[in-house]
Amino acid sequence: MKILLLAAALFSALSAAPASPGEKQELFRSLDRVIARSGEYTARRESRIDSLKCALTRDGLSLRERFDLTERLAENYNSYQSDFALLYLRRTLALAEETGDNDLIMRARSGIALCYSLGGRFYEAEEILSGIRDTVHVSRRALQSYYVARHRMNRELYALTEPGERRDLFRRREHYYAVSAAEISEDTFTSLYYGYMDAIVRKDWSEASTLCDSL
Prior knowledge:
By secondary structure, the chain is an all-alpha fold. It contains eleven helices and no strands. The chain has helices at residues 2-16, 21-36, 38-56, 63-77, 82-99, 102-118, 122-130, 140-160, 165-184, 188-201, 205-214. It is globular and about 60 Å long.
């Protein structure tokens, strides 16, 4: 997933940030190097998927252990094979509801909403996110999942909406959730990535360049 996000960061840097021809050529070369290794990344991902599936067949797993393994499977399928990602995300939600753990339910619902937004199913994404009532008494990790899902949905809606008040609203929400995800994340990569995404929205090319280099 991080490789995909990094490639997306490089691509948006190419398309958005003012740069000299030499700088753009170097960015293109960086992107070419990532693409050239796509077979290696795919093999690694499929190896992780097989390992996780094998782990799920073990006897005596607790509900929480099954949830964690299934969630990791969904994450490995995300942005790779969306049908399988959604299949395992729905299984995580069923397991989370069986545990009755609000944190796990929020993470599962947010993951499903993110998958819906990636597939252009915004009505369903909004419907499942609207079902999340408590965003206060949850962990940072659960809240981060929620912010990430909200950010993606509003980013996609902004890109698909004609200029006007509605589009401006999606942009403001995109900004809000990018900042929120960056601030609450305990993972350095995620914090840098959403800080970068927000810098692009604000057209702060200097900050965007610094964050992209860090990524």
